UniProtKB/TrEMBL annotation:
The lineage of its organism: Bacteria, Bacillati, Actinomycetota, Actinomycetes, Kitasatosporales. This is Roadblock/LAMTOR2 domain-containing protein. InterPro entries: Mycobact_SerProt_Inhib_Rv3364c (IPR053141), Roadblock/LAMTOR2_dom (IPR004942). Pfam families: Robl_LC7. Residues 19-125 form the Roadblock/LAMTOR2 domain. It comes from Streptomyces paromomycinus (Streptomyces rimosus subsp. paromomycinus). Gene3D superfamilies: Dynein light chain 2a, cytoplasmic.
Amino acid sequence: MKAQAPAAYGLSSEARNLHWLLTNLVDEVPGIRSVAVVSSDGLLLLSSDPGAAAAALPAGQPGAPAGPRGSSADLATIVSGLGSLTTGAARLMDGGTVKQTMVAMEEGSLFVMSVSDGSLLGVHATPDCDMSVIAYHMALFVGRAGHVLTPELRSELRKSMESAQ
């Protein structure tokens, strides 16, 4: 799967760099189906398929997303909900901060990792993916992206996602 970047024209260099990091993650790591970066309030900031307008098309129709049903907005919702659930569970169990969550399913895997200030990185992967490789590359992304996700950049990314739809 090739990641598609929204029109990067007019975006700040920080936003373009984050898009590049996400595109690189998707294109270079085997087994990744889709990726979403979600803000602490559950809004989609970055996605491996920012042309999510095609997600409104029924599956199988030209232009509809390939793979399992679900656009990047669906992945963002799932990532946000899972992040909230695991944070609540950690709080109840005095477990400290949740660093990573992994759900292994029959037909794929879902990984969620904290980025910064409550933002989350979610990766939907194939069932035969190498989980340690995906977790490693997610940690690299978090290390590179976490310190630049300022409130201003989050706002810019939200606006770029809204305009891509």
